[in-house]
Amino acid sequence: MELTTETIAALTLPAGKSDLIHFDDALPGFGIRLRAGGKRAWIVQYRARGRQRRETLGDARSVTLKAARTAAQKRFAQIALGGDPQGDKAEARARAAVTLGPLADRYLELKRPVVRANTYVADHRYLTGYWKPLRNLPIDTVNRRLVAARLNEITVDHGVTAAARARQSLSAFFGWAICEGLASENPVIGTNNPGARLKARDRVLTEAELRAIWSACRDDDFGRIVRLLMLTAARRDEIGGLRWSEVDLDRSTLHIPGERTKNHHPLQLTLPPVAISILKSASWKEGRDLIFGGNGGPFSAWSYSTLNLGARIAAREDGPIAAWRLHDIRRTVATGMAELGVQPHIIETLINHRSGHKAGVAGVYNRAGYALEAKRALAMWADHLLATVQGAQRKIIPLGSAAA
Asked: Percentage of the chain with pLDDT > 70?
């Protein structure tokens, strides 16, 4: 039957039926649906992308036959070009239901087993805290303008470094979401990077500053950590998360597995006696492998403890020292070893770097661990450091002097 104003007016539901569709012979797939209670609606029915679809075009009491037929023709034109109007609507509704917050939480849980604990903690802080204003938004509505505006707020509230790292964390999340088919683009790309304004740090502590820091350290977890950093040049979180199972006090060795190091290469050191003495002074808690920290996790009170340490230094008769960070200790130790005559490849071994002589093809063929040289270099540095901070007499001759 061809649908016209007259034929439609004459349509009624047969006795005992509550739902009936009449299709138009002139435009196959277009029809009118009659339901109980006098309800009438225009519909289109089609097959797209291998699925049967049916879509309502409007109430026949308020949409004219001509308008409904025109709308149906547009739908069929979309389908002929490979579209799927109903499927696209369903997909849009599904995307709108996927908000950034729950998706970011899923990303974090998948990431947790494969990254270092502190990397997870940092990403969790950024994605759940710094980016909180965007968490309730559908992921497809998070655009460059919103990200850029929030980055400016983070910069004002938390500083350039925090904003740069928050930006990096969100970008990595969107990269994952794209690969999962959950996002179509990365809105972080093209935003201004606050980190572009940061300069690489080159702060090296003077001997007077080393002495001030060492003297201000208390006989507590943070004090022991800082002094061990000064003796080993290890990274902050490597010592803060140190475990008894990673230390052999009898053999004076330390072995941090690759899962806990930044470059995923294990770190092995022979510790000088003063470092072993510091470790022995730490209290062992039954059933706990972690040496420092509390509440089931590694040491985490970095900001609070560093501020307190800085306050104690500032209270000295000589007053405060120039602004510094814990990571400056690592750079200072490496520089100090070089000044004592330790060869660059031995310093790289001690700080667990894979550059220079161990980079690329050279690293594939050169498997030497330089354990003896590293042991002696670390002992020599400890001797130099104690002479610096405590005025102790030097017991080890620098490598350059020995060679001479």
From this structure: 89
DSSP-assigned beta bridge partners for residue 31: 23, 43
Q: Which two tokens stand for residue 345?
A: 């490849």
Strands 51-59 and 247-248, by their bridges, are unpaired
Residue 135 lies in a domain: yes
Contacts of 67 (CB under 8 A, 6+ apart): 58
229 and 180 share a domain? no
Question: What is the rounded distance in angstroms from the CA atom of residue 258 to the CA atom of residue 265?
Answer: 4
- Entry pTM: 0.59
What's the number of domains the chain is made of?
A: 3
Parallel/antiparallel/unpaired status of strands 51-59 and 30-35: unpaired
Distance CA 228, CA 250 (A): 18
Domain co-membership, 385 together with 249? yes
Report the Cα 317 to chain-centroid distance in Å: 42
Alpha-carbon span 266 to 380, nearest angstrom? 23
Residue ranges of the chain with per-residue pLDDT less than 70:
86-97, 198-200, 354-369, 392-404
Q: Which two tokens stand for residue 362?
A: 């050279």
Domain range holding 62?
5-86
Residues 162, 46 within the same domain: no
CA distances in angstroms from 30 to 27, 66, 77, 336, 362, listed in the order given: 6, 12, 13, 83, 72
Among 86, 120, 142, residue at a domain's last position: 86
Residue 48's SS3 state is strand
Residue 195: how many other CB atoms lie within 10 Å:
13
Return the SS3 of 211. helix
